[in-house]
Amino acid sequence: MKVIIVGAGFGGIAAAIELRRHGFDELTLLEAAPEPGGTWHYNRYPGAACDVPSHFYSYSYAQRPDWSRLCSPQPEILEYLRGVAAEFGVDRSVVTGMEVTSCHWDEDACRWTVHARDAAGERHTWHGEALVLATGQLNQPAVPALPGRAAFEGHSFHSARWDHGYDLRDKRVAVVGTGASAVQFVPEIASRVSRLTVFQRTGNWFLPLSNGPYPRTVRALLRRVPGLRAVWRAVLFSAMELLTAAIRHPGTLGRFAGALAGAFMRRQLRDPEVRRKAWPTYPFGCKRVLFSSTFLPALQGENVELVTAPITGMSPRGPVTADGRTHEVDCVIYATGFRTNDFMLPMEITGTGGRSLREAWARGPRAHLGITVPGFPSMFLMYGPNTNTSGGSIIFFLQAQARYLCQALRRVRTHRAAAIEVRAEAEAADVLAVRRRFDGTAWLRCDSWYRDAAGRNVANWPGYMREYAARTRTLDPADFRLLRGNRG
Ligand code: NAP
């Protein structure tokens, strides 16, 4: 069976490793970037790191003893992923510089046809009996369509496409957005630039992050003491489940966590004006809780201004805010996140009867366990709808998805079928259960990138990591039908 995997980030690599482990050797990973890595290839802004501890933000079967610190910086994570891909022999299956434009299910041949174009614009075609879409939720930078944006005469770029060729030193810089990316790079650039204006639309809840290098003794213990790494992983797992519990129970645990975060923030926000502006106006956990002990102090730097007046447009000299001010700057950095609800949709994906995924998702993205979609045989999503986590490691979810899709394809192989497809009623029941599970949680108490135009949270898994693991551990054959095709 030929399997085509789109994307060679953590998701694509996880799928490839699992498939190879079960004897699926004909794998092709198509990667648009010039190297594997996904988000860790693209996000290279100063201070880029993961705010999930590395001993848990890593594959369970590829544990590293020597992470340099609790939450590793981007180069270390990228190097880890490259190393794992090589160790498990899946790096050889990666074709880089290949941007997939369309995937089409051919009902007669019972196979997927995938079109891509390379960096030179040349078109390429692949065929496979199964398709894994591992393009992630956070890969297409979103830049707000501000009136007059094109007329801005200074320099600008998005945080996920950092322009390292542009020297920020002594420049007047605007940062639009205060999400997880901005909080990592603002403290890094604040002392370098002559003036920094941070535009915040919504305040955030913060918890402290102490991220100095692991002391040598701790690293030595983690390397040498049998079982210690496993214990440490279990501790991290439980701590993250606790964060999810706070989000799931905003009236009780959430209040307590909010009080802890508030106390930390009050200690950090000495300037009453900045404190007033930066304070969140929604319950703890509704948006992503940010882990940083350096961002709030940076906001109070001498050369830093926090602006909360909404940006109404761009003038040639810089952002214009609703209070009529023009903020003259040399450079605008958009830390405005990603087109999350599009998932892989810029690609044209058509399934049975020529029906496109766009049509199937006209009323919002949805999938059975975030992995399979009725009408799209032997197509599997990694990090699909409702599998993002606010209190966990996405790698944990990706491994569960890889195991699940592998079970599905093993069924195809064992039964000598042509393809496997989730039943519409199984998908509908699962989607309904997931939607209901959001009731009463903090996730529905404010606007966020997790939610679609109808207000539904289509990004997050509404429960605990352990629940997702349990739901995906064993594929229920009753949820699927095998297609016989012309190979029956
Ligand atoms: P983000 O969390 O979506 O934040 C975007 C920021 O831009 C928000 O502050 C948003 O304000 C603001 N914004 C968006 N459009 C705007 C507009 N038109 N005018 C003014 N402000 C605007 O994006 P991100 O910081 O790149 O992070 C995205 C996700 O990537 C995170 O949630 C996280 O899952 C992941 N990430 C993870 C890490 C990590 O360490 N694990 C690090 C970075 C990113 P509102 O809040 O009002 O929408």
Automatic annotation (TrEMBL):
Matches recorded under InterPro entries: FAD-bind_Monooxygenase_sf, FAD/NAD-bd_sf, FAD/NAD-binding_dom
Domain (FAD/NAD(P)-binding): residue spans on this chain: 1-202
GO molecular function, one term: oxidoreductase activity
Entry superkingdom: Bacteria
Protein name: NAD(P)/FAD-dependent oxidoreductase
